[in-house]
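Morning, I've got a small favour to ask if you have a moment. You're getting the sequence in one-letter code plus the fold written as tokens. Thanks so much in advance, here it is:

===
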Amino acid sequence: MSSKRVPSDSLLKGRRAIEFINGIELINDLDWREPISKWVLHCCLYSDEIEASVIPRSTEWYVLIDDNYPMGSISIYPSKKNSINVTFPHQMYNGEGYSDHPWRSGLLCLDTNVRTLGNLAPSEEPFQDEMRLAWYISRAIEWLIAASRNKLTLKDEPFEMVDFPEWSSLKVGFSETTQSFRFWNSKNIKFGLATFSILNCGIFLVRGFKQFNGVCLRNVNWGYYPTDFKSNDRILGSWILLNEMPHFKPWQAPSTWGELTKICREQGIDLGNIMKQVKKKQSYKNKLVHILLIGFPIKRKINEEFTEIFWKGIEIPLLKDNSLIPKININGNKKNNHKINVNGRERIRWMRSYNWAKKAVMSRGMLPESISESKILIIGAGALGSSIGELLTRAGVEKLGIIDYDILEMGNLTRHNLLVTDLGRSKVESLANRLNKTSVHSKVAYYSGTLKDVIENNMGELKKYRVILDCTGEDEVLEYLQQYQWPTTKQFISISLGYGGKRLYTFSNCGSSFRYDLFRKVIDPWLQEEKSWYEETELPREGLGCWHPLFPARIDDVWIMAATAVKRLEIIYRQRQKPLFSVYEQNDDNGTFSGLDLINNEVCDE
């Protein structure tokens, strides 16, 4: 039932403003729906410009508005009566929706990214009382006109997949690139078996593709952490590769097995026969779930060529009450518990599916390929080394090695990336385990021991690293890096902090060894200057009795300088020929932090 809640003055202003729009007729005024906490407006949208053979020129719609208008969301859905019942581009799957709602599920996409809209209302969304609701209504009318004329998309727009009704709570991740797209194009095999591992509760990773005869077609390469989870033989997997994205015109995904069967048949695929073969090849006994992958080519933009394969997962439940598979239901009786009805009206349990290839995952921001594809060896898993290591792995560096001999102590936690649960454990092993969990592509190896011991015992592995990154700032380590001659040319980089973390020193050189002598020559004057500032300052200590002074620096100082050091790597990678020395310093304007300055940046004389 409707409550007696009264619309706000702002909403009433917005409501009155739409009366002046040509193309809307109110059927029912603002009505508060308590179960969904929305104001609902029932209206008719019309235009003589709508192509009537595609969409009726007058259709009914429901507008859902947040109570904090003009802020919050505004959503427009087609009515279950006298409206559109198919799905167009820039629209969510237009199904029946919930039985207790008079509107369908086909939410219109009207935001500013839809470039074909904007003739009746400006592209930039307004937030004034009188303008915001009117903006949505005007764009909805434009949407109807464009949809009826097949002009909702432009040729140079990003490619948009159909919206699959995802009735499964499970998720599946795969890895596909332009390179793997060429692989699939070179094969004339359209279906087979798939293997999966469980990454987390309800989250699966595609591990491999096989032919029905068991021959491996393609293994998927993941990082160390996902690889630790073996392919789960309790997950039944199969795959079908289509020639094009499964959909009905104009832009609607199949929602039932009957619809999918029809689409597959039109592309020369006998879905029912394939499912029978799957049952023959793999036993259903003690299986948790059957995941069917439907693959199809996609492109970056509408007017471009296809560039990769997208796999959309389908959950076919087999068992219930298993902790790894949430919300699984069984259909059918005991005799046909495992029967898959691909010809009836049973709806498809589409899964949320994601391309977790490295470039796709890192689309929010990744280091240049020259760095992200490098093999980097970090010496030191302390506060600075752990921070730089995490920044590198999260920014796309896949292959990282770390050397350290220390154990994590309680005092370390004030500025270290590790946790209380890691106390008393090897810093380097715990850090590697953590970093391998930052990405499904991380391959972080650890080497426990001093630099000298690790080099003497692991040179076969260490020689693969192109960049040697010292984060200890210890003279003993740097001297040894000068004494040891590596078999191939390396990029050596020393990163260290000044007193209190107020300065960052970076030094780099290419060669078979680190230029410690040159490093001391350029850094000593700066260290002497620092010493004169703090020689009267008492250093902090840890514990009572005999003690050694601790290096003072807060975690925010460490993180600022670690991030700066990673940015400095980009410069070093561009200028590798000669040794470089730089000094960054925090600005402190009468006790107010005002940023960092690069106060020294020099190419060092040989």
